[in-house]
Design a protein that fits this description.
This protein has about 675 residues and is of the alpha+beta class. Helix content is about 45%, strand content about 20%. The strands form two sheets. Strands 11, 12, 13, 14, 15, 16, 17, 18, 19, 20 and 21 form an eleven-stranded mixed sheet that branches. The longest helix has about 40 residues, at about 320-355. The protein is globular, with a radius of gyration of 33 Å. It starts with a helix and ends with a helix.
Length: about 675
Amino acid sequence: MSSFSQLKSFWNFLGRNKLFTAINIFGFAVSLVFVILMSLYIQDEKSVNAAQPNKNRIYYLSHDRGGHFPCPLAAELKSRYPEIEATLRMQRQYWTISDGVRESILDHVLLADSSFVTMFELPWIEGDPARAMRTRDDVLISQECARKWFGSEPALGKTIRINDRDRIVTGVYRDLEDTHFKPAAAILPFENVVENWGNDILTNSGNCSFSLYVMIKPNVQFTQENQDAIESYLKENFWLFKNGLVDTLTMETLSEVYYAERPMEWMRTNNKSFLMVLGITALVILLFAVINYINLSVAQSGFRAQEAATRRLLGSSKTSLFSGFVLESLIICFISFCLGIVLAMAVEPWFGKVMWTDISVAESFTAPNILLALGGIVAIGVVSGLVPAYVLTRFKPIDVVRGTFRRQTKMVYSKALIAFQYAITIVLLGATITIGRQIDFMCNSDLGFKHDNILVMDYSPGENGSRDGLRNVLMAVPGVERVGFAQGTPATGSNNNTFERNGKQHSFQVIGLDSTAYDMMGFQVVKRTGVDDRRAVWLNSVAWNDLELTDNAPTFRLWDRELKVAGILENYHIDNMEKPIGSVMVQFISADDWPWEVLIKVSGQNPYAVADRIKEAYLEYNGREPVEGTFMDDTIQQQYTAQKRMADIITALSLLAILISALGMLAMSTYFMRQRAQ
């Protein structure tokens, strides 16, 4: 019989066995939905910085405590090491923008050296890299920013007022797509940093607030030995290394920066382990679908055996039968893939929201992806069809007549495959329950301080403002209960103080609060020393034990100062709960100290509406200087966004695994029913 007649017979078989057809195609299609989406997501994440022409020559510098360096270090490295072609300093700012009529706040402005446009290839809409960022008043703006302020007119050469200074637009770019940079509304020359920091910042080696990149000259072999030499120089000349505050210099290429452990706030990042988990999970789900197809096909082998025996008696070879059954598998796989594409487009919005991605299935139909998909379909189809083809072609026609084929097809491996499915499903369910309980514990357990309905805002009272004046303005806002001031909080971060005592290095997180902010935090007191002095500090239990203080010790020495100790506070988490609790010192700030943040306790009814009123009153008081604010609860929850994202994906995959396992159970039941019916 011809291949055409075999395919026609297969088509009739599918029509007669609609349940078998629906389960096979649907099971394959639903599995392929996640395989398709996860593959596109991983492909998109792997493409970050991949198109940058200098990706192998650009290095991002960081150390044990992050990617913070002083301004003068860039020039020092460039002059000392001839293999360095260019350096780049960067910092993120919040500035105002105005066209004389409208005014807005740009919450993401990058200050960067002019080398930015030569080191990185921007997606230019207007302008020329050779003529961009040549003066301090030049500015590059995003396409979205250009549309907002200039409409459909060309923005190149136009003037826009940013931070109360006229700027000339020398370039327009699309959002910094396919790079590790978050979308930036504008990029200005780094020299503008003096507007917030003063002229001394450019020569100040003590202020480590800026990021640093270096680009190596072409055809220069930059090895670990070169990096070690730079690290040795920093240990001799850079105070963070000299004082033992940090130990290791890390230099990451652009392909590594996206997975950096210590990213800056303007950088997009991801986790290699997370991508690996997604890839492995996608393969497991695909394996589930293949196992189901094999089991369902074997379950139908009793019916197909008579057809195969007839073909053999009419002259068909074993090889042609084998290839015919594999071809049937390819057809099922192709139909399932087409259905999977449609379902993937439907699920795309949910997937994009969970994974923070804008991947598009429709836009992914490129020639390489189509070829890759076809290759995958062929591979999956062949693998899926091998076992059923082997089962249906290994017998002798006379076995079908005698009825012995039924006994021969009671195969142990079908049970083993189903057992494997159940085992993986149980593992996924266990992981889902465990991760869910862990996240619930981290997000809702007692952290050791109060954080409900506390709004944390930057302290920026304006040129003529004051702490008391700002407090009075904010207290007049309906819904505001208390206003305090702080230098760091347990949720938003604090300052680090590293010192030596009795020949041992100690590192503390130091939080400064006024009395209102201290009461607002609600720290739990473990022990009081009896010292009654407002200048006395509080230590958490970890710090007390680290300093090896005796019971009720009234003081301890910090550098050349003798600090009074008020007592011990209960340990609390200053970072997410995955990290161990460190040493913390809480001190009171005086009226002369400059706070970093304003802590505002608001009423529990509609706190976000109160926050909007607070921000408007704040901006009116300080002359519209940009301020940023977020609720402490939201900051704490954001610490676990990656874990929540993983939990959402694992939950979805667990539900899918249950569905596929149920189909596997149906396959096994069908298998035995078919065997008994023969």
